[in-house]
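If you are new to this repository, start here. Below is one unmodified record pulled from the training split, so you can see the exact layout before writing a loader.
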Amino acid sequence: MAETASIPVVRSRRLRFDWLMPALFRPRQTFAEIAAQPHGVWLTPLLVLSATGLIHAIVAGVFKQAAVQSGGMSLPPGFEYYTPEQQAQFQQAMAATSGPVFVYVFPAIFSVLGVWVGWLIVSGLLHLTFTLLGGRSSTSLASNLVAWGGLPLALRDVVRIVAMLVSRQLITHPGLSGFAPADDGGFSIYLAQLLGLIDLYIIWHFVLLALGARAGTGLTKFKAWVGPFITLLAVLLIQALFGYLSVQLSSLETIRPFLF
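And here is the target side for that same chain:
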């Protein structure tokens, strides 16, 4: 009776913490390995991004609540022209939104949701861009690249957390927003929102996506850089638009107390 040789089944590891540091500091080799994976390996970086975003939201909440309690909350333009009743209503609303739910719970939830929803959106756009450029892309490839390419954003959270703990105050001018014109025009507000999203870490993110695209899509070097650039530019422009709308809405008396 012939014996049947059993072939061992090699199961892929879902959590790849061993890729975290190499993805940041040895990206060419690591992203070539990530791009070669036939399945999703995106869980580890998304968990890291969720954790750093959650901690950042909590630390920011501590200093935001301290600023409100010390009377350092920002007042809307023309507050001195409000009637006493309107001023009292505004202060009551600010006091209501300085509770733990508004300061900690909602920002924490939105931070984690932003990681996962943003990952889905950017992955879909990147997959579409690669396909239009003629690359051999797949949903799994784009999802893996966006997740692991987002690790610099987790490092940015860590840097911001440390900066807040050291300075004991919130970061009011992130990114390049300090270079925006100092006037209240609509374009200046939009430009400030856009520049606030641009920093060393988003550039690092872009470089990692380009390296992964070069390794996994078969695109030329030029197209491998163009694809992530177009995708991230579109995402940043949309994010800046939402930020601009938020600022515009926050200037309305009936809406401002409920924004945070």
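Two things worth knowing about this chain: The CA atoms of residues 125 and 234 lie 9 Å apart. Confidence is low (pLDDT under 50) at residues 1-11, 253-260.
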